[in-house]
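Field: COMPLEX_INPUT
Field: COMPONENT_COUNT = two
Field: RESIDUE_TOTAL = 605
Field: MODE = joint
Values follow.
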Amino acid sequence: MSLEVAVRHRAGAFRLDAAFASGGGITALFGRSGAGKSTLLAAVAGLIRPDHAHIVLGGRVLADTDRGIALPRHRRRIGTVFQDGRLFPHLSVRQNLRFGRWFTPPAERYVAEADIVDLLGLAPLLHRAPSGLSGGEKQRVAIGRALLASPRALLMDEPLAALDAARKAEILPFIEALRDAYRIPILYVSHAPAEVARLADTVVVLEAGRVVASGPAAAVMAGPEVAAILGPAEAGALVDGRVARHDETDALTEIATPAGLVTVPRLAAPPGAEVRLRIHARDVMLALGPPEHASALNVLPARVAATTPLEPPTVEVRLEADGATLVAHVTGRSVRELGIRPGLVLYAVLKSVAVDRGEVGRAPGTPAAAIQRGP
Amino acid sequence: MAGLTPEEWTAIALSLRVSLVATLASLPFGVLVAVLLARGKFPGRTLLDVAVHMPLVLPPVVTGYALLLLFGRRGPLGGFLEHAFGIVLAFRWTGAALAAAVMGFPLMVRAMRLAVEAIDARLEGAAGTLGANRAWTFVLVTLPLMLPGILAGATLAFAKALGEFGATITFVSSIPEETRTVPSAIYALLQVPGGEARAIRLALVSVAISAAALLASELLARRSGRRAAA
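Field: COMPLEX_OUTPUT
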């Protein structure tokens, strides 16, 4: 099911003017705090009334201000998970879960309570009160509550922002599981690159109320717009690949990517499984020839696409390796001395590789040409 | 309290009936006005606020006189009620209940309004995204969450009704077995020589009933508070 959103809204000095489309799967709205991500989400959910809105979900017009249409939120059938859970304090977990189900016509219910309880591990919590739950438990209940209304789309407004790393690790697999279990579009607001890298199929980058880039996750996350938001420490590229084989003796796994074979510490995923790698720009070294006598396992040939000077002494070098994009941060002196310029073929030496996604479930390696840049 | 005379028992029963009816009848209006004042954005909101709080600051005798002018048999509202529904309030126990309700109303609304203002409006938004329209959201979210405030407001109004004297005696006088509530009875006893001992006994009864009402509300509030927090 597709979701088309175009919203213009003015609140005080802040102006939101954003449009994007999602073909399904998880679409991440990514950007700094205050970029307008949550406002955009609230407009889709019907929690605010934007000055101008055109929102269509699976062919059903939810809002079209030009035609005077603005469905009230209770008729939009869009599940929303808030950062703070917003569970009803006077109801038990079970009553919270059943709240939305009650308002869903029986013919439109596609989510069974037993499945949700199972999927989100809620069985031990059903008779508890929300105030006695931990942050992670609250968010799991909030996700279950939204899903049990059998929504046509799910909005998640920084659902993990208030949680510590351990709790995040607890919830992320559930979000992946529900993406695979229910084929509804999910809009996921986040300013955490790791979450976006792990979950998103499509990324929409917001900056000061405007969309500055949107497109397939790997292409957008390696783009300059995201690098500008993340800063040099976090900038990097996403590369989708497939588990080629496991090397049990050395406890390593080889992953076939468009850029070549990449070796990572032994993964649990079976051969053939799709995985997503995140390669920080600061972890990429550039060499003119294949380095010999070096400890790094991963050396990929690549062609320089562009060089962009950042804060001195850093220069960002964008590399194309057979459809995969890599980003390296090197010093200006290295660029000069190695003669790095667009078109040059060299070798990217990866000092470390993070595996972000166990099972992508989608075709890897979308060409960077599919990316759309805002004005 | 075996020593109470039949007239005194009548006064006690009348007081309880007047206070209970006053509280229960004003409860829906109290909730409505509290929600309007806490959440509503409409012209005349301040005016409504002032009107509701008027009995709190006016001399009770003025409130009673205003009721007499409005709801007396020749008053515009009193005449209408008598012709349309055959309801007479002036010099009847129902009039005493009206006076008690009006005097207790600001206290009731204040407590409920605070409770509404303490509710996180985003919870109501969340109910909306789950498919609940405004009416259902009110019934399933707002009303249960303001329950402790409703109980507190109702108790305050009940206690105020038990003690109401000035507006009552002005509006409906002090007619034995019709409008002579406990305060009126105490006042009447103090007007006759040798009535003081009986006045004190009745005063003690009054203290006991009010204390019991406050205690009951405290227990109820604690129970509902525990449920809301739980």
